[in-house]
Specification:
4-stranded antiparallel beta sheet, Translation Initiation Factor IF3, Alpha-Beta Plaits, 31% helix, 10 strands
Length: 253
């Protein structure tokens, strides 16, 4: 998409180069900042099984209550637990085929119901000791724990960095376009940023089919139609802050 915009800008410059009015050049700039997440989400789950769904539900609820109490005793703030619990129910039934000399019958056996309860806790990413302790406590109570997500709340500095890189990227493209058209890049007239920089968990490769609904109405600004690879490697928990700007310059013969 950006390559098409550059080709269009180059064609427009060729047409404007002979006009009486001083031509302008508008280019798209992209910039990215890679920063550590400052929030970590940990999910704690417990699965109970029983032939009776009510009994399985009671077991899972009691076990989760004990686990939550143990986590609070270990230092987790009650307010860190995100609202509500996740709950899922599944049933496993088995059957066997019994045959004699003349016939075969299917014999159904008793089914087992699995009830899973889950809660999510929000941690400050810098509190590694409490996060690690929470994993230990969950294991001691027979529950499972895993990191379910990351977030970036304090994004001001990263957004500024991404925006500055986007403006610099636009300048480099504008200089190349002006030179290709036999013109000189002049004064910067305007910087337009359509929306605040986007924030998402870093991925070294973007799925081209991972298109959000808003992207379908925003073809010009969307970057997800072409797979994007990057040479940057990062540990889990890194957040990608991206900025896109439109920068307009004067160009002179």
């Amino acid at each position: 998409m950006k390559a098409m915009a550059i080709l269009f800008s180059l064609y427009a410059l060729a047409l404007l180069g002979g006009a009486e009015e001083a031509p302008t050049l508008t280019v798209v700039g992209e910039g990215m900042a890679l920063v550590p997440a400052d929030v970590v989400y940990v999910s704690i789950s417990f699965t109970a099984e029983d032939e009776n769904v009510t009994e399985a539900s009671l077991k899972s609820a009691e076990a989760m209550n004990r686990t939550i109490e143990a986590l609070i005793d270990a230092g987790v703030d009650e307010g860190a637990f995100q609202g509500g619990r996740g709950r899922s129910v599944s049933t496993i039934r088995t059957a066997s085929r019994v045959c004699n000399n003349s016939t075969c019958v299917i014999v159904a056996e008793e089914g087992v119901t699995l009830v899973k309860e889950e809660v999510t806790i929000r941690f400050d990413a810098s509190d590694e000791a409490l996060i690690n302790r929470s994993f230990e406590v969950a294991g001691e109570e027979g529950a499972d724990a895993y990191i379910s997500g990351y977030a970036l709340v304090e994004r001001g500095a990263a957004a500024t960095e991404a925006r500055e890189k986007a403006v610099q990227d636009a300048k480099e493209d504008a200089e190349a376009l002006a030179t290709a058209a036999g013109l000189k890049l002049g004064e910067r007239l305007e910087i337009f940023e359509r929306s605040s920089p986007s924030v998402r968990e870093f991925r070294s490769f973007r799925d081209p089919l991972g298109i959000g609904m808003m992207d379908l109405f925003d073809l010009f600004w969307d970057e997800s139609y072409a797979p994007r690879e990057t040479a940057v490697s990062a540990e889990p928990g890194m957040m990608e802050v991206r900025s896109r700007v439109l920068v307009t310059y004067e160009v002179t013969p």
